[in-house]
Write a structure and sequence with these properties.
By secondary structure, the chain is of the alpha/beta class. The protein is 38% helix and 14% strand.
């Protein structure tokens, strides 16, 4: 089976993890700040706080911005459930903004209309979380301008987008947001096995994020409520969590970050190859906005079901039976049973629902060979034309 995504672990990666296992620190040691520095260098962000998962990063990002009960939080319906769940963990009320039908990211037009309507009823969001779907940046400059006008904070869910660029800057430099979050799950661009990170330009936010990942504790006398009793002393000053990442994970991440841009370059080569190989098939290939350079975490196509004469499920099943591990990204969050119980119904976000009904994610990762890619296309072509590949 050719998977839709997979990690690439080198001997250098293995050696980096083994070195930690032989060291004095398995967690809360020097490998974590070293990993944070590697992400800061790659994103040009002055601060980074690494945690145990991207979900944990999204959660403490919301907490650091004081999102809480009674507050409104908006994100994209075309995302993994963690994006909106992070706000629910804080007690906030969640809503969604429909997507742009070409980028599959949050629509600035839909956001503009929704904000104007929310202002009239006094229910503006405290936090908006654009999601950089597939590795392509949302139009952050426009979203930031709306944030300035309507006074909301911005968290970028860049789980797919480490190494991507937007308007001549790196995604994660936080020029147009308060906090940016990346994921290092094994199918992402680089991996720490499980892990996430928050980047920010705000030193006070970085301090709060670091405290929130470790039980809300501080050892900084300047942050304490009263005078320190000695070098062993710490105080819990907020209610935090144990979201610490291990030194083993961090060492793997630091090693992987050395290959970030080569990974992305190979994904772009393969994506251009897909574009050419799929040109004559009844599918819509991913469109890339000229203002951004995607990290290309995913290669999602849209099936022209009106021309194919079959269903997405039939295509999915045939591809899997043919040894190609296609997937679907994403089921719109508002259609999940849990969210329907919160009052969401089908039809509320038509662009996200239309995209989902036709979406199919093809395999894309740095070690995918040309031969494997040819096989993916051959199986897809056979499935769509009714002439199976030999």
């Amino acid at each position: 089976m050719i998977p839709y995504g997979r990690q690439d672990i080198s001997q250098e990666d293995i050696d980096a993890v083994v070195a930690v296992l032989k060291s004095d620190f398995l967690t809360q040691g020097p490998a974590v700040p070293a990993f944070e520095r590697s992400v800061m260098a790659a994103t040009h962000a002055p601060f980074a706080v690494a945690v145990s998962s991207a979900t944990a990063a999204l959660h403490i990002a919301c907490l650091a911005l004081d999102l809480g009960a009674g507050d409104m939080f908006w994100t994209s319906p075309n995302t993994f459930i963690a994006s909106s769940n992070a706000a629910l963990y804080c007690g906030a009320t969640v809503d969604f903004v429909d997507i742009n039908p070409r980028t599959y990211c949050m629509s600035v037009d839909a956001l503009t209309v929704k904000l104007a309507a929310a202002e009239k009823v006094g229910r503006l969001p405290q936090v908006v979380m654009p999601v950089h779907f597939g590795g392509q940046s949302c139009d952050m400059q426009a979203i930031h301008a709306l944030g300035q006008r309507y006074k909301f904070r911005i968290i970028e869910d860049a789980s797919h987008a480490i190494g991507a660029t937007y308007r001549d800057g790196m995604v994660g430099d936080c020029r147009f947001s308060d906090i940016c979050v990346f994921s290092f799950h094994p199918v992402k661009i680089v991996t720490t096995a499980e892990g996430g990170i928050c980047t920010t330009r705000d030193g006070e936010l970085a301090t709060r994020l670091a405290e929130l990942r470790s039980h809300g504790m501080t050892r900084d006398p300047a942050r304490m409520e009263w005078e320190s009793e000695g070098p062993w002393y710490y105080q819990q000053i907020v209610l935090g969590l144990n979201y610490r990442i291990t030194d083993m994970q961090a060492a793997l991440g630091t090693s992987q970050m050395k290959r970030l841009q080569p990974f992305i370059a190979e994904r772009h080569r393969l994506a251009k190859r897909y574009d050419a190989l799929l040109a004559d098939l009844p599918v819509i290939t991913p469109w890339q906005h000229p203002d951004s350079h995607s990290a290309l975490h995913l290669y999602p196509i849209r099936l022209r079901l009106d021309r194919i004469g079959t269903t997405r499920r039939a295509v999915f099943d045939a591809m899997r039976a043919g040894g190609v591990g296609v997937n679907v990204h994403y089921i719109p969050v508002h259609l999940q049973p849990f969210y329907r119980k919160l009052g969401f119904v089908p039809g509320q976000f038509p662009e996200a629902e239309a995209y989902y009904s036709e979406a199919l994610t093809l395999p894309l990762y740095a070690t995918l060979t040309d031969g494997q890619q040819d096989e993916v296309v051959a199986v897809l072509k056979g499935t769509l034309t009714g002439k199976p590949a030999k």
